[in-house]
Amino acid sequence: MIRLNLLRERKVEKPKSLMWQFWLYILVVVLSLAGTGVVWKFQKEKLSKLEMEKSRLDAEIKTYEKYDKLLKDLQAKMKDVQKRNEVISALISDRDNVVRLLALLAILVPEESMWFDEVRFSNNAVTIIGFAKSNETLVEFMRNLESSSFVPGESVNLVVSKAEEYFGNVLRKFELRFQYKNFSQAMASANVDKDKNKPKDLPKQP
């Protein structure tokens, strides 16, 4: 007796191999490492360029700082030379202050009615100790000082005025103080007054 099997033969599936998954994993790892290496190399080159640029900028800054220091030193020297020139010019203009002061006093003092016993001159401050025949003579001398371009009117100050016998005559002993402008200061004051539209004659050297 013959038996026929009409059912399809069921094929037994073989388990799939895991090797391709392993190689796929290896490929992914390799590609990842390669990509990371490329990015790292690019960043390293970029960092290197930035460091070079920083070095160049630092060198330029140092160069500019050097020139800036030289410029400041030169400006300081120019200011120093200018100040020296101003001092020298002032000394040249005012080197005869004492002589000019005595000449000014000789012009302003009332004739034959006032005598100086002592004249002190320090830092443009003048102190005069002397004798006058009368209060009127003393007032006249003070007014002459106040009207002079070389004496600030508000600086004239009568410290002492008293009657005292001098060689048998009763005179007024006085001590008078005032500030004296040297020629350059008097010229500067006159120019300031001129700029302010105040008519005032330029001072002449005594």
Would you kindly provide a written description of the structure presented here, covering whatever features stand out?
Helix content is 55%, strand content 18%. It has 206 residues and is α+β, with helices and mostly antiparallel strands. The chain has 2 domains: 23-95; 97-195, General secretion pathway protein M, EpsM (Gyrase A, domain 2, 2-Layer Sandwich). It has a 4-stranded antiparallel beta sheet. The longest helix is centred in the N-terminal third of the chain and has 76 residues, at 19-94.
Which CATH class of the largest domain?
Alpha Beta
Task: Please outline the major beta sheet.
Answer: 4 strands, antiparallel
Briefly note the structural class of the backbone: alpha+beta
The helix-strand sequence is HHEEHEEH
Note the gap between the termini.
Answer: 167 Å
**What general outline do the C-alpha atoms trace?**
rod-shaped
Number of strands: 4
Instruction: Examine the coordinates and then state which fold CATH places here, giving the name of the CATH topology of the largest domain.
Output: Gyrase A, domain 2
Assembly of the depicted chains: single chain
Number of helices: 4
CATH superfamily of the largest domain: General secretion pathway protein M, EpsM
- The pLDDT mean sits at 78
Widest beta sheet: strand line-up:
1-2-4-3
Short characterization:
This protein is an alpha+beta fold. It contains 4 helices and 4 strands, in the order H-H-E-E-H-E-E-H.
List keywords for this structure.
206 residues, alpha+beta, Gyrase A, domain 2, 2 domains, 4-stranded antiparallel beta sheet
